[in-house]
Amino acid sequence: MEKLDLGPYPRFSGRIRPPGSKSIANRALPLAALAGATLVTNLPDGEDVVLMQAALKSLGAPLSGSGIWENIEPEGFFRAPDGEISLHLGNSGTATRILTALLAAGRGTFRIDGVARMRERPIGDLVDALRPLCGDTKIFYEGKEGFPPLRIEAQGLAGGKTKIRGNLSSQFVTGLLMAMPLCRGPVEVEIEGALVSAPYVDLTLKVMEDFGAKVGRDGYRRFWMNDPSGYSRSAPYEVEPDASSASYFLAAAAIAGGSVEVQGVRRDSSQGEAGFARMLERMGAGIEIGALSIRAQGSGALRGIDADMDLMSDTGMTLAMTALFAEGTTTIRNVGNWRLKETDRLRAMATELRKVGATVEEGPDWIAITPPEKLTPEAVIETYDDHRMAMCFSLVTLGPKGVPVTILDPGCVRKTYPGYWDDFRKLAGA
């Protein structure tokens, strides 16, 4: 298996502009295809976005490398060019959930599949919520009930009322919301229970509005459209740099005592993960938030905190690594959706944190990390084909307490940030 030996690196400073947000890009790209010719700029080159682009090309929406949709006469829905088409979406939960909903509003027969792990990631709640809106559209499981692969025999979405549980994954809600403007009649979605990762739903609604579709809402309880009319846009669309990727560099400065400026993430960002900087501030790091940048300055003394990371769950993993360099225990709560990600991240984080000497307690939706007096050097870190496991464990190499580690399958970062290792080592002075 491929591996990467890292560190230790006593210093970490500089400026960085992370690649565009995968979350924004994978919402904007299919809407650009539905809207017609649109220039989409600052597209990230991670695997998830490449998979989305390939899927859209298969659906008859050509895209150049620069993000220009060419010669599109939008029908307002996706059509299987030859009546039937199969899409392989790897381990991209975002693309799988979004396209399941959008293709149900299309015309033709579509098959959606992915890697073995994708077949273990549930999609039943989304399918159950789509069915009351389907009219003559049919959705079938081709394997285990409630999981991909799926076959969608699409004849459009009629509209109507439906419900979906909010406590599993905001991606289910995102897919459902993005399909609403494609319904033939009025549509209403009710959220049952609390909604996890609510900022991702806000992000979805913002991108939809950018493409001409405004959804009525009652907080996070109910969403509706009385007169769905599809998507439209003529102006270029720029993808904001990824706030989750920014978190590693901000945390690196806090840990190593350096200064890092992350450029391009807006003060008024619609990405919930942009709030991670405030968690570092609570731990004792110096934080400056500008109109188009965030700067982190290490203070030399971090403290453990009790953090509810529901609104920024991906950066909870970065917080767990920062906890290794803080005084006292850090408890990270409301991250039960980690178990439905590329791997069971709660179990994976607990296992790998113990390899570097941490004392770890793991609950159904929380994790508590108490750092050791000294980190265990030369640990071999399993990444579980999960890009965020690889990137966050790079942080154990930093500062006066940092230790060398070996990262297995470092290439898994291609999912969102293929250039991560080069950028990390550049700021570490390696």
Topology summary:
Blueprint: E1 3-6, E2 14-16, H1 22-35, E3 40-41, H2 47-58, E4 79-88, H3 93-104, E5 107-113, H4 124-130, E6 138-141, E7 150-155, E8 160-165, H5 170-179, E9 187-192, H6 198-210, E10 216-218, E11 222-225, E12 237-238, H7 243-256, E13 259-263, H8 276-283, E14 286-289, E15 293-297, E16 302-303, E17 306-308, H9 316-322, E18 326-327, E19 330-333, H10 345-355, E20 359-362, E21 367-370, E22 379-381, H11 387-393, E23 405-408, H12 420-427
Parallel strand pairs: 2-13, 3-12, 4-5, 8-9, 16-18, 17-19, 22-23
Antiparallel strand pairs: 1-23, 5-7, 6-7, 9-11, 10-11, 13-15, 14-15, 19-21, 20-21
Helix pairs in contact: 1-2, 1-3, 1-6, 3-5, 4-5, 5-6
Describe the structure.
With about 425 residues, the chain is α/β, with parallel strands linked by helices. Helix content is about 30%, strand content about 25%. The chain is built from twelve helices and 23 strands. The strands form seven sheets. It has a four-stranded mixed sheet with strand order 2-13-15-14. The protein has a four-stranded mixed sheet with strand order 4-5-7-6, with helices on one face. Strands 8-9-11-10 form a four-stranded mixed sheet.
